[in-house]
Design brief:
single chain; 336 residues; alpha/beta; Quinone Oxidoreductase, Chain A, domain 1; six-stranded parallel sheet
Length: 336
């Protein structure tokens, strides 16, 4: 089968940072689906793994954690899926990724793809939808239909996770949603997706909130550059507020949240599959719910740009734009 991989970890400054290769088609285990991949999208985790995880010519690494495709084979213990089903999923961090014609994925973290969306539109959603859903409802503890009188501040509202988080918060809760964006086109995108207000995170945040009549926020979703904005979060967060983050950083003083009795929460959507948690199947349930909301037009795809067929050259272009921090929505590739 065709695949895109790397044989040496590092930056994109080499012509062979990603290469086209041929691999054997994998065979599903008892709990697996073998999926013929139709479309994929790229995420920051792709670039992080590509730059750090060791690889060799003998052990190339296939990355990619977003896919939509057709079930080609079903493991002996799998329920609720059959050959020919159209599915979407983010996969697991410790298994080969979706940048290949065929991929094995644990059926418990797979959902039936939304019928109303094309393959490219559906591929934009799994990882970010899982992340946004878990962050909002599990980490921040908001109840569906709840949140009246509270404000959610979304840092990086036009990015992949922000694009779906804004929609979930606006359409499934009573929260006031304030998104942030540093560019005009990103701000317009966040407004289109449902943010009540959009402010500029490159400028003082509290002053902009106060100009909107908001003196503090109960909930903060920090989706990018947490370390850069952390001091401002301490100013903005309400007593007993909650801060949830998804990005990597170091040397942040968590005790600064103490005086306000504010809490800190990590969201990492791969934790369930990495540790085979008892509630691992909740990700499949979650994706099926997201598909229903998409088919009911309660949510929309977050596809930003289509980068053509799945090959090394196009994936390198997509990785480069993603690493620039200028991507709006999700970058998708389709077909081999």
């Amino acid at each position: 089968m065709k695949a895109v991989a790397y044989t040496q970890a590092g930056a994109l400054d080499r012509a062979d940072a990603l290469i086209d290769i041929a691999l054997d088609k994998p065979t599903p285990g008892p709990q697996d689906l073998l999926v013929k991949v139709a479309a994929i999208s790229v995420n920051p985790v792709d670039a992080k793994i590509r730059s750090k995880r060791p690889a060799t010519v003998d052990e190339p690494q296939v990355i990619g954690w977003d896919a939509v495709g057709e079930v080609a084979a079903v493991g002996a213990k799998v329920q609720n899926f059959a050959v020919g089903d159209r599915v979407f999923y983010a996969g697991a961090l410790d298994r080969p990724g979706s940048n290949a014609e065929y991929q094995l994925v644990d059926a418990r973290i797979v959902g039936h793809a939304p019928e109303s969306l094309s393959n490219a539109e559906a591929a934009a959603l799994p990882l970010t939808a899982i992340t946004a859903w878990e962050l909002l409802f599990d980490r921040l503890g908001v109840a569906e239909g709840g949140g009246a009188g509270q404000t959610l501040l979304v840092i990086g509202a036009a990015g992949g996770v922000g694009s779906i988080l804004v929609q979930l918060a606006r359409n499934l809760t009573e929260l006031t949603v304030v998104g942030t964006a540093a560019r005009e086109e990103s701000a317009e995108w966040a407004k289109e997706l449902g943010a009540h207000h959009v402010i500029d995170h490159s400028k003082p945040i509290l002053a902009q909130l106060q100009a909107l009549g908001i003196d503090s926020v109960e909930l903060i979703a920090s989706l990018t550059h947490t370390k850069d904005h952390y001091a401002q979060y301490i100013e903005c967060i309400a007593p007993q507020g909650k801060l949830a983050v998804i990005d990597d950083f170091d040397n942040i003083d968590i005790t600064q949240l103490k005086s306000k009795c504010a809490s800190f929460h990590w969201e990492f959507m791969f934790a369930r599959s990495l540790y085979q948690t008892a509630d691992m199947a909740e990700q499949g349930v979650l994706l099926n719910r997201v598909a229903e909301l998409l088919d009911a037009s309660a949510l929309r795809t977050t596809l930003g740009e289509h980068y053509g067929v799945i090959n090394a050259a196009n994936l390198m272009r997509a990785h480069a734009l993603l690493e620039s921090g200028k991507a709006r929505g999700k970058l998708v590739l389709e077909g081999f």
